[in-house]
Design a protein that fits this description.
Homodimer. About 2% of the residues have low confidence. It is built from three helices and six strands, in the order αααββββββ. By secondary structure, the chain is α+β, with helices and mostly antiparallel strands. The strands form two sheets. A three-stranded antiparallel sheet has the order 1-4-5. The protein has a three-stranded mixed sheet with strand order 2-6-3, with no helix packed on it. The chain has two domains: 93 residues; 108 residues, Nucleotide Exchange Factor Grpe, Chain A, domain 2, CATH 2.30.22. 65% of the residues lie in helices and 16% in strands. The N and C termini lie far apart (161 Å). Strand 4 and strand 5 form a beta hairpin.
Length: 203
């Protein structure tokens, strides 16, 4: 009987010990679950931070690519504009060399008219023929965009005129073109040949 009682006491003591240990196990289990949740939250936070960093990097790359595209488009537009300007210049000034070579012909026609005696009846037909030829020549040049620079009586312009000499003259303002040795010409606004002139100066 004593032995059975002793065994019963041990069983009761074990149950009591188990009952005593149960709250600790629950607390440990709860702590483990809390730790697991905390670790999971940390992992989620790390993932979220990594995603945000990747998104920021992608935004930066997108901005850089947009900038590169805009720069490339600007370069293409500039190249197209330059090419268009070159084509326009070629259209406008492609005949400049030919015009320069034709100008002496106009000069010779003018010299021929200046050397013929206009009072001589026998020369009138020749004069009329040269004048018609000269007019036709000038009209053709004008159609090609050529403008005559004949500045007699105008103020001297160093961008359009070339002064051959200066003559004292009190009747006009200083730096006035008194005479034109040779007319100048412009092609579509660009000077092809300056006018050679005599300029006045104060007496």
């Amino acid at each position: 009987m004593a032995k059975e009682r002793s065994e019963d006491e041990q069983i009761e003591t074990g149950e009591q010990a188990a009952e005593v240990e149960t709250p600790d196990a629950e607390e440990q289990h709860a702590a483990e679950e809390a730790l697991a949740e905390e670790l999971a939250a940390d992992r989620d936070a790390d993932k979220e931070a990594a995603l945000e960093e990747e998104i920021a990097s992608l935004h930066q790359q997108l901005a850089e690519h947009k900038d590169m595209v805009l720069r490339a488009q600007a370069e293409v537009q500039n190249a197209r504009r330059r090419a268009q300007q070159d084509v326009e210049k070629a259209h406008k000034f492609g005949v400049e060399k030919l015009i320069k070579e034709l100008l002496p012909v106009v000069d010779n026609l003018e010299r021929a008219l200046s050397t013929i005696d206009s009072s001589d009846e026998a020369q009138k037909a020749v004069i009329e023929g040269i004048e018609l030829t000269q007019k036709s020549f000038i009209d053709t040049l004008v159609k090609a965009g050529v403008e005559v620079v004949d500045p007699a009586g105008e103020p001297f312009d160093p961008e359009l005129h070339q002064a051959m000499t200066q003559v004292p003259n009190g009747d006009v303002e200083p730096n006035t073109v008194l005479d034109v040795f040779q007319k100048g010409y412009r092609l579509n606004g660009r000077l092809v040949r300056p006018a050679m002139v005599v300029v006045s100066k104060a007496p």
